[in-house]
Design goal:
The complex is a heterodimer of chains A (about 375) and B (about 130).
Chain A lengths: L16 H6 L3 E5 L2 E6 L6 H10 L2 E4 L4 E6 L3 H8 L12 E7 L5 E11 L2 E6 L4 H11 L6 E4 L4 E7 L3 H6 L14 E6 L2 E7 L8 E7 L2 H15 L5 E3 L1 H10 L15 H4 L15 H10 L4 E7 L10 E3 L5 E11 L4 E8 L9 E6 L2 E8 L11
Parallel strand pairs in A: 3-13
Antiparallel strand pairs in A: 1-2, 3-9, 4-7, 4-8, 5-6, 6-7, 9-12, 10-11, 11-12, 14-17, 14-19, 15-16, 15-18, 16-17, 18-19
Helix pairs in contact in A: 2-7
Chain B lengths: L7 E2 L4 E6 L2 E6 L1 H7 L2 E5 L6 E2 L4 E7 L3 E5 L4 E6 L9 H4 L7 E5 L11 H13 L1
The chains are: A alpha+beta (about 375), B alpha+beta (about 130).
C-alpha cells in the first residue's frame, strides 16, 4: 500500500480545523482545503452515512463559498447569471441553480437564497470560489447591485438527517416546523442573534445549514453545543467521505465530476432546473441550439451486477468491450449496500436495464443502467 | 504492541507470518485504519505465482483503492474465502485476518523485511509528516 500523500503548504483551514484534529478526524486535502474525511470516533464513513440516513449527523462545510448580491438590480443580475428562475423565489426561499458559460457548460452549480426583495446569497463550491466570484462580478457590472465575496465570513455547519429538526430546534428560537425544505429564516442559534438557517443540504435527507460567524472560538463553541444537544439523537460528526457517498446515493451532482466547464445542462440531465422560458441568461442561446442538436452523451446511474466497484474516471464499455463512456463518481453505497456509479454514456445506452461493463483494473465488470436517484428519502408520514 | 513480533512487515503495510516454507500474508492495523471501512478484497487464484515487491491483489475501502504488495515470492496455496463476503473482518482484526497462504520460494528475501519495532518506527514517522 502506498504512503498517504503529504499535504501542500498553501492549504486552507476552516475555523473548526483544530476541533476536527482534537476529535481525531482523519484529514485530507480537498480542493485546497484541509478537511476531515472521516471520524474514527464516529465509527468511520459507513457509520456516519447511516447516522445521516436514520438519525442525524453534522458536517463542517465552511469551505463552501458565499456571494451576496444586493441592490435594486440584484434580481435582474441573478436572473442574468443563473439558469433557474430567481423571480419565482419568495423572500426566504431558495433554489438549486447553476452559473453557465456562454456555451451552456457549467461555471458552477449554486444554491440561490432570496434573503430580501433585493438581496440574494449564492452558495458556491469550495474549489470554484475565486473563479465564481470573478465570473459573477464581471457578468453583473451592468446591473445596479453590489457583489460581495462573503466566503470567509461564515462557518457553515450542516445538520443532516431525519432527526436534524429535533436537534436544531433545541438550540434555536426559530420555529423550524414552519420552515419548509429549501426555505431560509433567521433566528437565535446557540445564543447568537440573527443567524441564517437554511433547510438545505447535500445528503438526500432533510436537514439544515447554519451560517455563523467565522471566528474559531464561536465556531468551536457552537459545534460542541450541537454535539451535546444531539446526544439524545445519537448525533455523530461526519466528514467528506460520508458527504460524498450520501450525495451520490441521492444523485446530487459534484462539480468536476458530473458537471464541469465541458459538460452542458442537457447532458447532465438538469433540465428541470433550467428555465428556458426566461428570455435571457448567460448560456441560454447555446442551450437552445444544443437542445435542437440533441446530446451525444447523457448521465446515467449504474449498478454493478458483477463483483467489482466502479470508481471515478473508470471507463464504461459496451458488452463487446468497446469504450463508450466514463464513470464520473463511483462507490459502494453504504445505505443501499450496492456498488453504484454515475456515468456518461451515449443515449443509446441510457435506457434503464441497458447492460454495460465498467473497466476495473483492465477487466470488464458487468453493470446495468438503473433508475435514479438511487436513494430517495421516505415521504414524511 | 499493535504489531506482533512474530510477523515481518513491508513498507507498503503488509505483514507475513512464516513457518518453514509456508507463510500467511495480511495487511497491518495501520493499513486498515488508514483505509477505513474495507468493502472489497481481490486476491489471486490458488496456484498463482506472486513476486516479492510486486502487486498481487487489491483491497478497497468505501473511499479508496489500494494495491497489495507481496512481502515474498512464492506460490499461492490458499486464499481466505471468507473475505469475499466479510471483508470487514480485516478492520476488526488486521493482525490475525490472513488474505493468502503461500509456499515461499526464497526465504532469504525475508531478510529485507521490517521487524515489528522497525515497522512501528516507520509508521510513526509516516504518520508524523
Amino acid at each position: 500500500m502506498p504512503a498517504l500523500e503529504a499535504t501542500t503548504p498553501a492549504i486552507r483551514k476552516t475555523a473548526l480545523n483544530a476541533v476536527h484534529r482534537q476529535m481525531g478526524a482523519k484529514m485530507v486535502e480537498f480542493n485546497g482545503w484541509d478537511m476531515p474525511v472521516e471520524y474514527p470516533s464516529s465509527g468511520g464513513i459507513v457509520a456516519e452515512h447511516m447516522a445521516v440516513r436514520t438519525g442525524v449527523g453534522i458536517f463542517d462545510v465552511s469551505h463552501m463559498g458565499d456571494i451576496r448580491l444586493a441592490g435594486s438590480g440584484a434580481l435582474a443580475a441573478v436572473q442574468h447569471v443563473s439558469m433557474n428562475d430567481a423571480a419565482r423565489l419568495a423572500i426566504g426561499q431558495a433554489q438549486y441553480s447553476a452559473l453557465l458559460y456562454s456555451q451552456g457548460t457549467f461555471v458552477d452549480d449554486v444554491i440561490v437564497h432570496r434573503l430580501g426583495e433585493d438581496e440574494f446569497l449564492l452558495v458556491i463550491n469550495a474549489g470554484t470560489r475565486e473563479k465564481d466570484f470573478q465570473w459573477v462580478s464581471e457578468n453583473t457590472r451592468q446591473f445596479r447591485c453590489a457583489v460581495e465575496h462573503q466566503s470567509d465570513d461564515f462557518t457553515q455547519i450542516a445538520i443532516q438527517g431525519p432527526k436534524a429538526v429535533h436537534l436544531l430546534q433545541k438550540l434555536t428560537d426559530a420555529d423550524l416546523s414552519a420552515l419548509k425544505f429549501y426555505w431560509v429564516t433567521r433566528g437565535l442559534v446557540c445564543g447568537l442573534k440573527n443567524i441564517l438557517i437554511a433547510r438545505t443540504g447535500y445528503t438526500g435527507e432533510d436537514g439544515f445549514e447554519i451560517y455563523i460567524p467565522a471566528d474559531a472560538a464561536t465556531s468551536a463553541r457552537v459545534w460542541k453545543q450541537i454535539l451535546e444537544a444531539g446526544k439524545e439523537f445519537g448525533v455523530v460528526c461526519c466528514g467528506l467521505g460520508a458527504r460524498n457517498t450520501l450525495r451520490l446515493e441521492a444523485k446530487l451532482p459534484l462539480y468536476g465530476h458530473e458537471i464541469s466547464d465541458a459538460i452542458n445542462v442537457w447532458e447532465a440531465g438538469l433540465d428541470r432546473f433550467v428555465k428556458m422560458e426566461k428570455p435571457e441568461f448567460v448560456g441560454r442561446a447555446a442551450l437552445d441550439k444544443a437542445r435542437a442538436t440533441g446530446v451525444k452523451r447523457t448521465l446515467v446511474g449504474l449498478e454493478m451486477v458483477e463483483r467489482g466497484i466502479a470508481r471515478d474516471g473508470y471507463k464504461v464499455l459496451d458488452e463487446g468491450g468497446k469504450e463508450i463512456g466514463y464513470v464520473t463518481s463511483g462507490s459502494p453505497a453504504p445505505f443501499l449496500k450496492r456498488n453504484i456509479a454515475l456515468a456518461y454514456v451515449p443515449p443509446a445506452f441510457s435506457e434503464v436495464g441497458s447492460k454495460v461493463k465498467v473497466e476495473v483494473r483492465g477487466q470488464g465488470i458487468g453493470a446495468q443502467v438503473v433508475p435514479t436517484p438511487f436513494y430517495k428519502r421516505p415521504k414524511k408520514s | 504492541m499493535p504489531y506482533p513480533t512474530d510477523l515481518k512487515y513491508t513498507k507498503e503495510h503488509e505483514w507475513i507470518k512464516v513457518d518453514g516454507n509456508a507463510a500467511t500474508v495480511g495487511i497491518t492495523d495501520y493499513a486498515q485504519e488508514s483505509l477505513g471501512d474495507i468493502v472489497f478484497v481481490d486476491l489471486p487464484k490458488p496456484g498463482s505465482e506472486i513476486t516479492a515487491g510486486k502487486t498481487f491483489g487489491t483491497v478497497e475501502s468505501v473511499k479508496a483503492v489500494s494495491d497489495l504488495y507481496a512481502p515474498a515470492s512464492g506460490t499461492v496455496t490458499e486464499i481466505n474465502g471468507e473475505l469475499a463476503t466479510a471483508p470487514e473482518k480485516i478492520n476488526k482484526a488486521a493482525n490475525t485476518t490472513w488474505m493468502v497462504k503461500l509456499t515461499i520460494k526464497s526465504p532469504a528475501e525475508l531478510n529485507a523485511l521490517l521487524s515489528s519495532a522497525d515497522y512501528e518506527k516507520f509508521v510513526s514517522e509516516e504518520a508524523g509528516h
